[in-house]
């Protein structure tokens, strides 16, 4: 019988997740070093992030810019650049400036206007910002992300921006009871990823800033479906509840 969440320690939960990640990699014939675990710490206190850090976790995901910035300011004093922040939630244009030099990766770019804003702010700070394009993979009305049909046109625009580096794709498929139901979406995202990676992009064109070797991140899979996502090729899994427990929203 599975233990109740309350009866486990974070150390036990992380060990269990690592074991499952390894098993999923093995089933898929992949090396475990290909998969990065992002601990999604949104709504959770700094003390729990410190606990996870002490247990070896280095990548943390946040939805809200203000929360990411606050936690960055508190924890990067202590840990320096060894702690990495991922902006995984929807990003508003007026928040771009605050987050681009604090997040190592923005997972949620889904419009040209947002891309242009990132380009503008990154240019001012003289940095190159790593991003993923978020795809609305199941065509859900309520979800963020670009429609699959519009992915290539958006990609084609973003790779013309010198202060943006497009690193891969991200998706948040439907919430399902049976993770197998999402396998087709993970597989579809991977296919879109491969299509782009193998696309013949003229690198002799000096207005294009794209290197297919750096296009190597597939961010998909959460607490309920990360094992299936890994079997389908995920290189980053974003796990919140499975590490930190249910979230309470005030
Ligand atoms: C909250 C969140 C997660 C983590 O979800 P869990 O089901 O708690 O693992 C992953 N990705 C995104 C984009 C999220 O907003």
Automatic annotation (TrEMBL):
GO terms for molecular function: pyridoxal phosphate binding. The keyword Ribonucleoprotein does not apply. InterPro entries: Ala_racemase_N, PLP-binding_barrel, PyrdxlP_homeostasis. Residues 15-247 form the Alanine racemase N-terminal domain. The modification N6-(pyridoxal phosphate)lysine is found at residue 42. Keywords: Pyridoxal phosphate. Gene3D superfamilies: Alanine racemase. Its cofactor is pyridoxal 5'-phosphate. It comes from the Bacteria. Pyridoxal 5'-phosphate (PLP)-binding protein, which is involved in PLP homeostasis. Belongs to the pyridoxal phosphate-binding protein YggS/PROSC family. This is Pyridoxal phosphate homeostasis protein.
